[in-house]
Amino acid sequence: MAKIKITKTRSAIKRPKNQKLTLEALGLRKIGQSNEIEKSDSVMGMVNKVKHLVSVEEIN
Fold first, then answer.
1. What is the predicted pLDDT for the residue at 56?
2. Is 14 in contact with 52 (CB distance < 8 Å)?
3. Taking Cα atoms as reference points, which of 24, 37, 28 lies closest to residue 8?
4. Sheet containing 34-38, strands listed edge to edge, beginning at the edge strand earlier in sequence
5. What gap in Å lies between CA 36 and CA 27, rounded to an integer?
6. How far apart are the first and last CA of the chain?
7. Residue 56 and residue 35: Cα distance in Å, rounded?
8. pTM for the complete prediction?
9. 58: phi > 0 → left, psi -120 to 50 → alpha, else beta; which?
10. Residue pLDDT, tens place only, 19-54
């Protein structure tokens, strides 16, 4: 399966609680922190929910 690298680029201050919890579930706490996760439909749904706060790269 393909992997994606997710990096938190913006703050979660003044964001709805569900977006803050989504970032935590993706393993992102601090700005600039990255995490490599297997690409799946559920993960991509989570990324789509917080796409304005993160950057995403495909890893082969």
1. 98
2. no
3. 28
4. 34-38, 3-8, 54-59
5. 9
6. 9
7. 10
8. 0.92
9. beta
10. 999 999 999 999 999 999 999 999 999 999 999 999
